[in-house]
Amino acid sequence: MGRKGLGELEQQVLLALVRLGGEAYSVPLVVEMEERSGQEVSQSAVFIVLRRLEEKGLLSSRMEGAHETGTGRERRYFRLEPEGLRRLEEARRLFERLWDGIDTVWGQR
Amino acid sequence: MSMGGRRRAPGWVVWVMERLMTPKEVEEALSELDELHAHWEASAGRREADRRYRAELRRYPVGLLGRWLRAIRLPEPGLLMSGIARNLRGMSRAPVLTSAIVITVGLGIGGCTAIFAVADVLFLRPLPYPEPDRLVWIYTDNPPYRFNFSVVDLQALREQQTSFEQVAAFQTLSRTFVADDVVERLSVWAVSPEFFELLGVAPLAGRTPAPEEGAPGASATVLVTAGFATTNLGVSRGDMGSVIGTNVRLDDVPHEVIGVLPERIGPMGGRAQVFVTQQLEAPARRGPFFQRVVGRLADGVDPGAAAQELRAINRRLFPVWQSSYQDEDATWGMAPLGELLHGDADRLVLLLMGSVSLLLVLATTNGANLLLTRVRSRRRELSVRAALGASRSRVIAHLLAESAVLAAAGAFVGLVLARGAIALLPVLAGSYLPRLGEVVLHGRPLAFAALLAMASGLFFGLLSAFQGSPKNPLPGLEAGGGRSSTPSPGAQRSQRILVAAQIALAVPLLTGAGLLATTLRNLQRADPGFETGGLVTARISLAESRYPDGDERRQLWWELEERVRSIAGVLSVGMADSRPPVEAFNYNNYDLEDEPTPAGQNQPVAAWVSADEGYLETLGIPLREGRMLEEADELPDAPEVVLVDERWARRHFPGESAVGRRLREGGATSGPWTTVVGVVGEVPYAGLGGEAAGTVYAPWTSFVQPFLVARVRGEPENMVAAIREEVRGLDPTAPITDVETGETLIRSSLTEPRHLTLLLSAFSTVALALAVIGLYGVTAHSVQSRRADIAVRLALGGSPGRVLGQVVRNVMATAVVGLLIGGVAAPGFTRLMAGLLYGVGSAEPAMLSGVVALLGAISLAACAVPAWRAVRVSPGTGLREE
């Protein structure tokens, strides 16, 4: 099966994770994504995407117990893996190639 | 901030989440949402936080389903084939289970497909003629009745209408056909010359009738079907043209064959093979009403405008013929031609469709249930696979492939069954379902079968995939082994839901079957009003052309009766133009002297039986009041008298005597009165249990094709040959047909209710069996999984009765839920059969509660047996097995 590029939401999640220092659990991720985009971000979508990225090996996760978080809750922390970073950079290069020279074309209008 | 407390999520969302996520994931998702709620509350307020929380939860099911579907990747073709091969091997190891699923699903699909093929013809397929939506049936509209036209009506319609490209009329007759040594009575359609052109039917050879051939006095012409030409006229298939111009003798009149028609000219024409050109004499009055009329709307004419024109013509016609026809209320109306052909079959097909759909749902539910059992018993295998690295999607794909194979096999069985059913339909149901000749198994019905197969395959496939694919392989491995592993609570619950659904579905089917069986029994027990034992009856047909004179015919019949009466063993003989319970030759309108019908209102109508004095006596119809018919009444110049039956007497003169009352028949306003001289017992002519409006018996005996009735000693069948001999002695060309005994008259009139009862009983027996099997299975499993528990309790001195009671109570709760749901839903189904019942209502509470009680008792037995067997096991055995 051919490896497909990252989806838009996948990129957003990975980028937010980078901004949060490469490791975070989902709540701050959602908050960060909403603040950055100015739009509502679906928690369920992020929840599912995080697990999908983990299955693909772009992220890894670990549980943090209730006393470690100090909130009485367990939390699952996701960490960006080297493969994830690589795919993110790949996506950026693809994006830049796609946009390359577009300004010149537009400038001629 | 609400930290510890978990917010309540809607139950169904959690239910879906629990099925599509691991428990850990559910926990995490809900916990994170709680935390986000707190964040939203702080930043945007309580209301906004609540709104987002709810919206987010509702997004979960869709998102998760997307993830789940994405996970199902069909393996590469090679793997798929090997997977199917492995499935087939696996199925062959469980042949009983596999064939149980395949056969029940096949039955459901087959039944649904066959009935759908019929429904397809009736509801979806246009009539098989060019531009069928322009074809209409034109009739005298007298709600709720639709009557035929008289010749007067037909001629006025022809002359005055502008909305139709063509109008044509037809009536069905029977004619005697004599060829070499064969004397045959044929059902013949007499059609007006335009008939074939209007329908768009072209002859294979020859031509259709010319307009002038429909005029009185023109030479008689006929068209025959290719089948008739080959079997009866000795023409070879390739040489149809050679029959053109030859003569066919019908009722002793030579008819020139002018055309050969294709084998089937569609539903218009029924099973007739001979179509004579109808020649209409100039009418003397507006009646009798024998003409069925069809029209083809002119191109672009609005049906509403055409209907309006019909009413206008009738209004203009009314005053012209008022002396013979006073019914001012009746108008002319039109309807799509299909309504003429379908009659009330539509309702029947809907009922059958409803029944087989219930059966299919039941069969699929049953298949899912059996598959669940199988998947559960293979948990260990599936867990091993998962543990060995098969991804969840692979396991799911595997289970789906298995369901697909099962559904495909079920569809195959179903198609074979449907094919057989469609081939048998014309034989079984030809007398009450129209257009069966057009029913075929391709196109829509085939697509429908494929759809059903896919739907049922997907249904039990997804269900078993949900339940069977281990999210975590460990539980399946930890348990003692494949067979005695404890079903997960989720799987147990879905199995229970399925069993409850099966019981719920069985309730309406059983109730329907019970109602129809009661109807059949009521009809069989209904008093036919005449004595059936030792009765023999047959139709004898004269060629009117040979005996044009009524007196001559009366003499002939009188002579025949004398001869038959002298046969040893014949007790009495009579004749009439009708015979019970369904063959009324005529219905007539009349005006009562004491209760004249006000101008502009409909005159009463009753079955009008012309009979001789021996008919009532031979049938054993008792005299209640007045006198019977006498031979003198039959003479032409005798005073006009009639007998009436008790129903008629009650209808018009409740609580009074009907004898001596006078009436004028057929809408006549002048002429002598007819006097009622006697009241006799009631006999049905519109079917046992049919809506009867009373019967009038008139002494008139110049019959052309009467029924002879004879009461004999001994077996009636044995007398037929002797009677035939006497008829042959009088006129060797007069055929004897429709021979029936009293018993066969009753039996053949009940064909439709008997078939329906049989069908629904068969359906509901299957339904009952499936429900019982399902219930038994659930109990057996539940007992199996609690064996150790039961054994421990028994070992510690627990009473077997209490343990038993607990198990049974547990499973019966499921059955009771099913019974309740079924009981509430059943009246909706049985309402479909309102017109088919007799002596029992469609919402009969006694029947419904009886069915519920019966099902309850059977359910109890189905779960008590396995439970009892578990309790009987000695505690040691149960414990050792663990």
Short description:
The complex is a heterodimer of chains A (109) and B (882). By secondary structure, chain A is an alpha+beta fold.
Structure notes:
The complex is a heterodimer of chains A (109) and B (882). Chain A is 61% helix and 13% strand. Chain A is an alpha+beta fold. Chain A starts with 7 loop residues before the first helix and ends with a helix. The mean pLDDT of chain A is 86. Chain B starts with 10 loop residues before the first helix and ends with a helix. Chain B has 5 domains: 11-71, no CATH class; 74-131 and 345-485, no CATH class; 132-342, no CATH class; 486-522 and 750-882, no CATH class; 542-734, no CATH class. Chain B contains 26 helices and 22 strands. Chain B is α+β, with helices and mostly antiparallel strands. Classes of the chains: A alpha+beta (109), B alpha+beta (882).
Largest interface: A-B, 21 and 22 residues
* Rg for CA atoms of chain B: 36 Å
Number of helices of chain A: 6
Order of strands across the widest beta sheet of chain A? 1-3-2
State the secondary-structure class of chain B. alpha+beta
Largest sheet of chain A: 3 strands, antiparallel
Number of strands of chain B: 22
| Unreliable parts of chain A | none
How far apart lie the N and C ends of chain B? 50 Å
Beta strand count of chain A:
3
